[in-house]
Design a protein that fits this description.
The protein is an alpha/beta fold and 287 residues long. The protein is 44% helix and 20% strand. It has two domains: 6-128, Rossmann fold (3-Layer(aba) Sandwich), CATH 3.40.50.2300; 140-286, Reverse transcriptase/Diguanylate cyclase domain (Alpha-Beta Plaits). The protein has helices at 14-26, 37-46, 63-72, 90-98, 111-128, 140-150, 166-173, 175-195, 222-236, 273-282, and strands at residues 6-10, 30-34, 51-55, 81-85, 103-106, 156-164, 204-209, 212-218, 257-264, 285-286. The strands form two sheets. A five-stranded parallel β-sheet has the order 2-1-3-4-5, with helices on both faces. The chain starts with 5 loop residues before the first strand and ends with a strand. The model has no long low-confidence stretch (mean pLDDT 90).
């Protein structure tokens, strides 16, 4: 997030748009404005905002469709969206929240309350970029910070656990089952790691992306931990599937496969977190 957070205001009433633009700019925000849903989608791709204030009634498409399109695009999929609308029905509110909006504010609104809701949504969003919203494990910014602290030091090991087949799994069983599988995998990794006797003050577990997890431990613990993880994951992977699918033959269900790798300080000279991540991902081998 930039020093001056950016807000995309999608509002076709010029008076309301000008008021919002002037107010938020006076409070230190950068403000973009679009009166049409199509223009909003184009602007959001060109200059990804930190937050979207989105009216539901627009000339070319309704705000729900704009929200759906923003959520479908990788660049804007996680941008917090607050609906502004004169619709007061419970169903309207539920429709917006179901699409992933973080708040739903009816007109007329208190501008100071809106500013506080915007501030709070931005704070939550900033925190969520540091941890994975599904597993709660440290995300890439914290991983990079940890890996940077390893550069030039000795005595550490970096393990990577990778799961393949998540897209097919999600297509077959739905995103809820997919998220449950990721949470189960994260729990297995955490329990196995800390049960193996590692020093908790020197141990770090993070999630690089949907399918790749990184673990930092003392180098002397890496071989034992790798063996423990391989054994535990082989035992656990069947339980990642919904209960009714656990008895199905592997050939009749989407395949989830797991890989592991270990890189230590003795394996080379690493000058950046990116070099470490590339090496450990390149070294993956099936469990």
């Amino acid at each position: 997030m930039a020093d001056r957070p950016s807000i995309l205001v999608v509002e076709d009433e010029r008076g309301t748009a000008d008021m919002l633009k002037g107010y938020f700019e006076a409070h230190g925000y950068q403000v973009l404005w679009a009166a049409w849903g199509g223009d909003a989608l184009r602007l959001a791709q060109e200059r990804v905002p930190d937050l979207v204030l989105l009216d539901i009634r627009l000339p070319d498409m309704d705000g729900y469709e704009v929200c759906r399109e923003l959520r479908a695009q990788r660049r804007t999929g996680d941008v917090p969206i607050i609906f502004l609308t004169d619709r007061r029905e419970r169903l309207d509110r539920l429709s917006g929240l179901e699409l992933g909006a973080v708040d739903f504010i009816t007109k007329p609104f208190d501008i100071q309350e809106l500013r506080l809701r915007v501030r709070n949504a931005l704070k939550r969003s900033q925190f969520e970029t540091l941890v994975d919203p599904i597993t709660g494990l440290a995300g890439e910014p914290l991983i990079d910070e940890k890996l940077s602290s390893l550069l030039g030091r000795r005595g550490w090991a970096l393990l990577c656990v990778s799961v393949d087949g998540l897209d097919g799994f999600g297509d077959a069983y739905g995103f809820v089952a997919r998220d449950d599988a990721l949470r189960a995998l994260a729990l297995v990794l955490s329990n196995t790691t800390f049960e193996s006797g590692v020093d908790p003050d020197l141990t770090f577990i993070g999630q690089l992306d949907a399918g790749n997890f990184l673990i930092v431990v003392e180098a002397g613990r890496s071989r034992e931990l790798r063996e423990r993880l391989a054994t535990r994951l082989k035992q656990a992977i069947n339980y990642f599937y919904p209960a009714k699918e656990r008895q199905a033959q592997p050939g009749h269900r989407p395949l989830l496969s797991l890989s592991l790798s270990v890189v230590t300080a003795a394996d080379g000279t690493f000058d950046s977190p990116e070099a470490l991540k590339e090496t450990v991902l390149r070294s993956l081998a099936p469990v």
